[in-house]
Model the fold of this input.
Amino acid sequence: MQKNLLFTTVLFWCWYCSAQNGISSVKTKDSAILICWVECEASFPGGTGPMKRFLAKEYTIPDSLENTGIKISGTIIAAFTIEKDGTLSEFEIEKSLISVLDKEWLRVLKLMPTWRPAMERGKPVKTRYKLPVTIDIQED
Done:
């Protein structure tokens, strides 16, 4: 079975709110303020290249999908919060493909190291990110 994972992390999105004057905020589940448009975005240690390598190394197609003859193609989008200290929290799937693949994507995202937090006016701020992965599983 041929497996291709296309990490579209170059196109990962910060969740931009409708902003006036370039800055906007929304309340989160715990009533904390979340900044959506920032001067300096949060980043994975080392940047996009190391993040792509980390994700590609850690993500595996679950054994339950091996040799099934099922063709699976699509994108999973997960969202998570980057706290002021760079830790990651509040993981959720925003666009699902198949439950077992969604769970694997969340598992891998939860393994990521502490990020460099977003900055606004010289101070770290809590932000929300969406990170997609494109899956293409085809029988040879």
In short: Strands lie at 2-6, 13-14, 25-27, 33-35, 72-82, 88-95, 118-120, 123-125, 127-138.
